[in-house]
């Protein structure tokens, strides 16, 4: 059974085509890209667009199992020793920023895979806001100079 008339083939989209509802992320997934995001990328959401409860729910679904509900690196998989070495969000060696968290959610880092297919751009920023909230609760600074 053929869905296209004889001699026709499905075609690839035109170069540069962007799917409806998708916004390209212009920083690449390299270490240099991570450093650039860490230093320069900030949330495009203003205070009226932040939904802390929604950020918390998304975090609990996608992140808490490893990072812990408090961001202390003590999620259930860590406690059961299924994965090891998840640092707390306030770890001074990491110096988390909004940009570094977003980049990591988008591309993954180390053993953490990308969540770009699970969370759309706006949802990622909601999670970033919640991660920064957890970092502050743990005593970490909101600035790069931890």
Written overview of the protein:
- This protein is an all-alpha fold.
- It has a domain at 46-137: Cytochrome Bc1 Complex, Chain D, domain 2, CATH 1.10.760.
- 38% of the residues lie in helices and 0% in strands.
- The chain is built from six helices and no strands.
- Helix 1 runs antiparallel to helix 5, helix 2 (52-62) packs across helix 6 (121-137) and helix 5 (98-107) crosses helix 6 (121-137).
- It is elongated.
- The relative contact order is 0.18.
- The mean pLDDT is 89.
Rg to the nearest angstrom? 18 Å
Quaternary structure state of the chains depicted: single chain
> Low-confidence parts lasting 5 or more residues at pLDDT below 50?
none
Architecture of the domain at 46-137 in CATH? Orthogonal Bundle
Sheet having the most strands: none
Average pLDDT rating: 89
Portion in strands: under 5%
Cα distance, first to last residue?
63 Å
CATH topology of the domain at 46-137: Cytochrome Bc1 Complex, Chain D, domain 2
């Amino acid at each position: 059974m053929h869905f296209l008339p004889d001699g026709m083939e499905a075609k690839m989209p035109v170069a540069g085509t962007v799917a409806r509802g998708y916004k390209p992320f212009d920083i690449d997934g390299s270490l240099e890209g991570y450093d650039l995001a860490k230093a320069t990328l900030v949330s495009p959401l203003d205070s009226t667009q932040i939904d802390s409860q929604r950020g918390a729910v998304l975090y609990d679904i996608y992140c808490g199992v490893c990072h812990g509900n408090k961001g202390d690196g003590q999620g259930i998989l860590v406690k059961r020793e299924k994965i090891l070495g998840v640092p707390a969000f306030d770890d001074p060696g990491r110096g988390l920023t909004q940009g570094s968290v977003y980049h990591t959610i988008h591309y993954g880092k180390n053993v953490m895979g990308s969540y770009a297919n699970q969370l759309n751009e706006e949802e990622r920023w909601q999670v970033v806001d919640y991660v920064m909230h957890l970092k502050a609760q743990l005593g970490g600074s909101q600035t790069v100079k931890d």
